[in-house]
Amino acid sequence: MKKYPVVILPGWLLGSKRFLGLAQEFEKQGYKTYIVDFPGFEDEVRLSSALNLTDYVKYLQQFLRRQNITRAVFIGHSFGGRVALKMLSQEPKKASALILSGTPGLPGITKFRFYVTVALVKAGKLVSFIPPFIFFRKLLREFFKKITRAHDYYRSDGLLRETFKNIVKEQLVEYMKKLRVPTLLLWGESDRLVSVKIARKMQRLILKSQLVVVPKMGHMFTYREPKVFVGYALKYLESQPTK
What we know:
Layout: E1 6-9, H1 20-28, E2 33-35, H2 53-66, E3 72-77, H3 79-90, E4 95-101, H4 111-127, H5 137-148, H6 151-154, H7 159-169, H8 173-178, E5 183-188, H9 196-205, E6 210-214, H10 221-224, H11 226-239
Helix pairs in contact: 1-11, 2-3, 4-5
C-alpha cells in the first residue's frame, strides 16, 4: 500500500503532545504524520461558543486544506473517531484507510442513564460543599466519577460541557452504515470506557471492517503504548491492496 500521510485525531480534551510518541513511531516507518489539535482541547484556543460534531468536522477539513492533504490514513482515538466517521462517511476519497481505537460508535448508556448521570454529577457537586463532606471533596468527586462513569463529563466545564452534550447526542449509526473506507477497529481488550462489545457491534455496521483486540491493553494504549499500536496498524496497512 502506498504510504499516504497519517492524520491523528485525538480523544476528548487531549492535545497533540500526548500523541507525539505515536507520530514518531509512524515517522520511523516512513509515514509523514500530522496531529490535529481540536478547538477547546489542551493545546488549542478556548471556545467562544458551544460546538457540535459538524463544527469539529469543518475544523478537520480546514486543517487538511492548510496542510494540502488530499488523501490520508486517519487514526481516530475515542472522540477523534467520531469526527472521522462523520467526515469520511461523506467524503470517503479523503481516506486510504481508517483506524479506530476506543471510539464510542454506539451509545454505551441509554438516554435515561445519561440524564441520571448528569443529575448525579450535579448532586455530587452540591454534596461536596456541605460540611463535613467539604473536607472530602476530592474523594467524593472520584466516587461520583466511578459510579456514573462520567469521566469526560466531569473533565468538561462551561462551553466544553455543553459541547460534550451536543457530541454525545449525535448518533453515528448511519455514518457507519455509509462508510466505504477500509477500516480497522483496533481495540484494547481491557478498555473499560468503550468495551470490546461495542467494537463488535460497530464491526457489523461498517462494511468489510476488521476488528483486532489487543490483549492487556486499555482505552489509552493508542498513545501510552505507541509501538504496540503502530505494530498492529502497520500489519493492517500492509495487508491492503496497493492504490
